[in-house]
Amino acid sequence: MSKNSPNSTNYAYATDSACSSVKNSKHIKSDSCSCCSHSHNQVDISSLRTKVPMLVSTFLLILGLLLSYTSFGENTPHFMFPILYMLAYLPVAYPVLKEAINEIIINKDFFNEFSLMSIATIGAFIIGEYPEAVAVMLLYSIGEFFQSIAIDKATKNIESLINIQVNEARVLTENGVVTKPAETVSIGDVLQVRVGDRVPVDGVLLSENASFDTVALTGESIPQTIFNGGVVSSGMINLNTVIEIRAVKTYQDSALSKILELVQEAIDRKAKTELLVRKFARWYTPLVFGLALLVAFLPALFVADYQMKVWIYRALIFLVISCPCAIVISVPLSYFGGIGAGSKQGILFKGANFLDLMAKVNTVVLDKTGTITEGVFEVQEVSSAQGSKEELLNLTAAVESFSVHPIAKAITSYFPPNQSIINQIENVEEIMGQGIRCTMAGELVLVGNDEFLQSHDIVYDYENRVGTRVSVSKGNRYLGTILIADKIKEHTAEAITSLYKGGVKDIVMLSGDNPKITEEVGKTIGINDAFGGLLPQEKVAHIEKLKEKESNVICFVGDGINDTPALAVSDVGIAMGAMGADAAIEVSDVVIQTDQLSKVNTAITIARTTRSVVFQNIVLAFGIKALVMFLSVVGIATMWEAVIADVGVTILAVLNAVRLLYKEF
């Protein structure tokens, strides 16, 4: 929210400046930063410009206290004390006074945090409480200094992801290697990537093999080895030798660019709690001003020995402790820290609002292929009814060579087709969802599922085995069956167990695959509710049925284009894998950049921890402030205690938020 917007809150968080710093990417900082909404030109937190005013004020305040309360000041004229304390006050008060005036003149807004601090300290000067006035502004500046450190850390954590973008690419041409902007790389260009360089665009590896550091994309520290023809994502770091890749996407469409876009969008999406704090800030300051006036003057109506100076002093204490910095800084900073913690784990939350939703998830719905299984079919068993297994494979592979279906690729990879047999095949017709029909030496050849063969009156008995069956016939003779299955990902069962232990009540698996295969996979990994044979719209219907129970907060995890309807209708949609379908990534609310199902539980843990930190900070801030407010009204708390409590609780809340960046998940 722009600070100059007529409807903007006075507490436009310091984290907004951090966010705009990230969004401007190339290390461009925003001009708004500080406690609550303090706007000034951001400088290096270690610079003299930041520290000198605090050091000068600290020295003069200590000098004033020594002269006021020790024998050192016995001969000091009384008129020197206001001057000395004013000199101590101005270096740290000037930025706040300036902002208060700007808010009143430019934004026509008197009720803001800067006015609150200014009135409290000027009032303290008027009634002769000089040290307290200086202390309020000085400790306020010290608190702001620590907040700047915290915000800088949170910003750099996100910026570390932004800074992995690649600006240049080395393109192989007839005239040798030409360096040009990565944005100008075209699909089909052959690129050279040196050791230590990042891959500029998505491509396929032309070299024999290569090892890559993928930690910035996936959060995994173990190098990934990719072989010839394998997919290489932009942002990976080449580790061992100069390699060549062929670009398959432009820079704008590459995985890295999409990830950076997601991060930049995420910082703009506020959680409900964060938005509530913003609304709260709009009426909070006017209310505090009103209550302070009541504290100052209402006792005159019923206190017998009413002394105006005493009650005005109590009202000023009330104003100091009521500053809402601890809340309006720590809440957005906590969400910012949660997003940063996720990015370190290769988990991209598309906004703070999805952190809130993810924290409430109690039902997880999983797609099977590509999420639970690797999505790569492998030949498991060859069963020949007539002739040898090799003859069966020779014929099947030759027929399947005319198809691009994943099952066909699995068979031809397992047993390369014989060209002489391929040359004998004629009249090839592929029937979607069933198989391939062709002729060979005048005889009809069928390769497909059992229903396909039975529809052509091919009679045979078959064992009901788990897996995808590719049955083969020639003429009217059944030749045999090849059993193909998708491999379950490593550690999937452990990931399911961790979800249950983490508080997820129900886990459901939905698949378009054979129902019996789906049920068997479910039993293997510990999921009882597994449903197969579903079309995309039927998956949506299952999720809608689960949503009928109001207590269910549903997270759907998928990776393919066919998963996009289910991702869209669920409360939280998670797209798996950096190379997942673009449509799935676009529709999802969270993107997990690896194929590890365990990251789903990590995402839930990060979200719940973030939400816990947010509420800890709210309770801490309100509790301490309410206590000191009460003590100020009854005359127990002094302004020293109020400012120490205010700054102290702010620093504690900020440190609590920042620990998200250091916590191991």
Features:
single chain; 665 residues; alpha+beta; Calcium-transporting ATPase, cytoplasmic transduction domain A; Calcium-transporting ATPase, cytoplasmic domain N; six-stranded antiparallel β-sheet; 22 helices; 22 strands; 48% helix; disordered N terminus
Describe what this molecule looks like in 3D.
The two termini are 32 Å apart. The protein has 22 helices and 22 strands. Among the domains are: 14-160 and 264-340 and 608-661, no CATH class; 186-249, Calcium-transporting ATPase, cytoplasmic transduction domain A; 375-487, Calcium-transporting ATPase, cytoplasmic domain N, CATH 3.40.1110. The longest helix has 36 residues, at 598-633. Helix content is 48%, strand content 17%. The chain is elongated, with a radius of gyration of 34 Å. Helix 1 (14-23) runs parallel beside helix 5 (130-162), helix 3 (80-105) packs across helix 5 (130-162) and helix 10 (325-344) runs antiparallel to helix 21. It is an alpha+beta fold and 665 residues long.
Topology overview:
Layout: H1 14-23, H2 48-69, H3 80-105, H4 113-126, H5 130-162, E1 168-173, E2 176-181, E3 190-193, E4 203-205, E5 209-213, H6 215-218, E6 224-227, E7 231-232, E8 237-238, E9 243-247, H7 255-266, H8 272-297, H9 308-321, H10 325-344, E10 347-349, H11 352-360, E11 363-367, E12 373-384, H12 389-400, H13 406-414, H14 419-422, E13 425-431, E14 435-440, E15 443-448, H15 450-454, E16 468-474, E17 477-488, H16 492-501, E18 506-510, H17 515-525, E19 529-531, H18 536-547, E20 554-558, H19 564-569, E21 572-576, H20 582-587, E22 590-592, H21 598-633, H22 639-658
Parallel strand pairs: 11-18, 11-20, 18-19, 20-21, 21-22
Antiparallel strand pairs: 1-2, 1-3, 3-9, 4-7, 4-9, 5-6, 5-8, 10-22, 12-17, 13-14, 14-15, 15-16, 16-17
Helix pairs in contact: 1-5, 1-10, 2-3, 2-5, 3-4, 3-5, 4-5, 4-9, 5-10, 5-22, 8-9, 8-10, 9-21, 9-22, 10-21, 10-22, 11-21, 12-13, 16-21, 21-22
